[in-house]
């Protein structure tokens, strides 16, 4: 696959240059503010795509005058799978090049089955003493495959991938992100199984990978809000050990009913809540359109102070 190596290496160089150009667009003497960076990076993915997609239409001498897109379209299934894995290990971008995604989709369920077997056969955590960077590179084909399942709307991947994901107390963030992307790609089809894992397969106190189920459900639900999703998030909120994650999810989901849920929680925990969770709750309430002037402040940062706890003394 010498020609694919050259093709993907050249594409990676193009991406690197485009990313540098994108970063150079934000400049000031003191450097960009956090707000400026957040606003700027909203356009990151579209900028990258619009400036790298033309690469695949360019004719290459090392491809006998073919374009990269035409070269990939001529590959058979096994060659395409090999190219898919190689691209994931060479290209420093979370998105697989569109010609590979489109061509792999054309093989239908057979391609998905082979990728799913690869994902389930892979090690999901580095072994003791294994270099983490080496593990990261070697696991990238599985990361790309998990993301591909969402793009291909491959429902049979949901149960085994989530089961494997939840079999570990903790996984690397990039693995959790890939599973989230898969579930977002599957959209409403992912809702029932995410709720099932989050509420029925977790312990009474939701921790570890099941916290990620709430994060994933929140992102899936943002695309099509439903009462079923809000009620599941509400139930998970009460059972989540890491309340700060639950607070953020309620705010991110965007259902205004979350205002009373969060205010009720703040009232009940005013003497015990930690600073991070308190301020995330305030931020979430604001994002949902609620007022925070009536909220008691246990950290004395506002004028509305919390009265000292009454221990029964007169």
Features:
314 residues, mainly alpha, 16 helices, 62% helix
Structure report:
By secondary structure, this protein is an all-alpha fold. Helices cover about 60% and strands about 0% of the residues. The protein contains 16 helices and no strands. The longest helix has 23 residues, at about 1-25. The protein is globular.
- Amount of beta strand: under 5%
Question: Which H/E pattern describes the elements?
Answer: HHHHHHHHHHHHHHHH
Give the helix tally. Answer: 16
Would you tell me the structural class of the helices and strands?
Answer: mainly alpha
Regions with pLDDT < 50 over 5+ consecutive residues?
none
Overall shape: globular
Query: Mean pLDDT, nearest integer?
Result: 92
Q: What is the subunit organization of this protein?
A: single chain
Helix content: 55-70%
Biggest beta sheet summary: none
Amino- and carboxy-terminal Cα gap: 83 Å
Please give the number of β-strands: 0
**What is the radius of gyration computed over CA atoms, rounded to a whole number of angstroms?**
23 Å
Short recap of the structure:
The protein is built from 16 helices and no strands. The chain is mainly α and 314 residues long.
Blueprint of the fold:
Blueprint: H1 2-24, H2 34-41, H3 44-52, H4 68-73, H5 77-90, H6 98-105, H7 109-121, H8 132-151, H9 158-165, H10 173-186, H11 191-200, H12 209-222, H13 227-239, H14 243-253, H15 258-268, H16 275-287
């Amino acid at each position: 696959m010498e020609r694919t190596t050259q093709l993907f290496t050249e594409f990676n160089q193009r991406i690197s240059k485009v990313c540098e150009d994108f970063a150079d667009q934000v400049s000031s003497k003191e450097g960009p503010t956090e707000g400026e960076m957040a606003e700027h990076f909203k356009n990151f993915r579209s900028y990258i795509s619009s400036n790298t997609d033309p690469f695949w239409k360019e004719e290459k001498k090392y491809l006998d005058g073919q374009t990269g897109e035409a070269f990939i379209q001529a590959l058979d299934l096994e060659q395409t799978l090999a190219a898919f894995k190689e691209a994931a290990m060479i290209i420093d971008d979370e998105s697989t090049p569109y010609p590979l995604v489109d061509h792999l989709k054309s093989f239908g369920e057979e391609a998905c089955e082979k990728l799913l077997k690869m994902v389930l056969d892979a090690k999901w955590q580095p072994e003791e003493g294994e270099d983490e960077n080496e593990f990261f590179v070697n696991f990238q084909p599985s990361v790309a495959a998990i993301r591909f399942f969402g793009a291909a709307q491959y429902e049979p991947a949901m149960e085994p991938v989530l089961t494997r994901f939840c079999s570990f107390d903790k996984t690397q963030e990039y693995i959790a992100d890939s599973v989230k992307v898969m579930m977002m790609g599957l959209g409403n089809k992912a809702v029932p199984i995410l709720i099932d894992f989050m509420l029925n397969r977790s312990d009474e106190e939701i921790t570890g990978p099941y916290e990620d189920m709430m994060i994933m459900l929140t992102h899936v639900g943002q695309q099509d809000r439903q009462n079923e999703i809000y009620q599941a998030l509400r139930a998970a909120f009460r059972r989540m050990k890491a309340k700060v994650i639950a607070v953020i999810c309620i705010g991110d989901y965007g259902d205004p009913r979350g205002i009373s849920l969060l205010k009720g929680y703040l009232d009940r925990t005013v003497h015990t809540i930690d600073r991070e969770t308190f301020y995330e709750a305030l931020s979430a309430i604001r994002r949902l359109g609620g007022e925070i002037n009536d909220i008691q402040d246990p950290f004395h940062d506002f004028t509305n102070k919390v009265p000292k706890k009454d221990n029964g003394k007169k």
